[in-house]
Amino acid sequence: MTTQQLIDQIKKKKSFLCVGLDVDLNKIPQHLLQTEDPIFEFNKAIIDATHHLCVAYKPNIAFFEAYGLKGWQALEKTINYLNQNHPEIFTIADAKRGDIGNTSTMYAKAFFEDLAFDSVTIAPYMGKDSVEPFLAFKDKHTILLALTSNQGAFDFQTKLVEGKELYKQVLETSKTYTNSENLMYVVGATKAEYLSEIRQIIPDSFLLVPGVGAQGGNLQDVCKYGMTKDVGLLINSSRGIIYASNQEDFAQTAAQKAEALQKEMQAILEA
Ligand SMILES: O=C(O)c1cc(=O)[nH]c(=O)n1[C@@H]1O[C@H](COP(=O)(O)O)[C@@H](O)[C@H]1O
């Protein structure tokens, strides 16, 4: 998917919501456990109930890998279901990969070609030759971890390296990579106060912003400091939406939570 197609979808739906699919069999409604593929059935129900309210889905690969072969098959069914039924929706493989060049190429093939995701999250710390293999894919997007939502972000990312915070070095250096127009970045919603400075370095790039809801990040602050003329934001919520109910009404309740966020986004876009 091109960035322009994503922007068009945001404008049409008046939403920049990304629903995170972090499926935990201990948290999903009991009745789904009787089905042949509880992970896929859960995702399908959530997608059917929320696709008109969001512009992206982000399956977190850990939650599939944890269930072995069945988990990976459920991931494949989920991305195929999205690509076949909702091709306009932006898909993110939250895999946080990155390795030496030839290995990164294989990761890129796995997520961009075999599974046909639009984007994948990547850890930047192995540098240029670990990121560029992902950037080589046309109309696919590489979402680099810049300043993450968790407390551990302060261990390294905000530390000064040659007089500049490491996450700023990541932003600046990544702009020099071949095909850097295919880059997006992760900035946690819990780090909204850093967004003004981040926008000075990457004024137009899309940001994937996790951490609203369960982690306490604030949507209004993120938009105030991080929004661009083309919105430039994908706000992710996982647990706050998909586990709002663990009863038979789970998909309907998820849709209510998604709609509340979408309405908040619409109000910001129309302000
Ligand atoms: O790359 C991510 O998506 C990510 C980066 C980050 O800094 N913080 C973060 O929470 N995430 C992911 O975003 C999702 C957040 O989930 P909730 O806190 O349940 O909304 C999880 O899948 C995390 O792995």
Kindly report the CATH topology: TIM Barrel
CATH architectural name: Alpha-Beta Barrel
Helix content: 40-55%
In CATH's first tier, which class applies?
A: Alpha Beta
The percentage of residues in β strands lies in 15-25%
| Overall average residue pLDDT | 97
What is the H/E string? HEHEHHEHEHEHEEHEHEHEHH
Rg over alpha carbons = 18 Å
Total DSSP helices: 12
The biggest beta sheet reads: 8 strands, parallel, barrel
Bound molecules: orotidine-5'-monophosphate
Organism: Mesoflavibacter profundi
Keywords: Decarboxylase, Lyase, Pyrimidine biosynthesis
Protein name: Orotidine 5'-phosphate decarboxylase
Active site: 96 (proton donor)
What do these coordinates show?
With 271 residues, the protein is α/β, with parallel strands linked by helices. It has one domain: Aldolase class I (TIM Barrel, Alpha-Beta Barrel). 45% of the residues lie in helices and 17% in strands. It is built from twelve helices and ten strands. The chain has helices at residues 3-13, 38-50, 62-65, 68-85, 101-114, 128-135, 153-156, 166-174, 195-201, 219-226, 239-242, 250-270; strands at residues 17-21, 56-59, 90-97, 119-122, 141-147, 160-161, 164-165, 183-187, 207-210, 233-237. It has an eight-stranded parallel β-barrel with strand order 1-2-3-4-5-8-9-10, surrounded by seven helices. It binds orotidine-5'-monophosphate. Residues 20, 22, 60, 94, 121, 148-150, 186, 188, 210-211, 213-215, 236-240 line the site of orotidine-5'-monophosphate (OMP). Orotidine-5'-monophosphate binds next to strand 10 and helix 11.
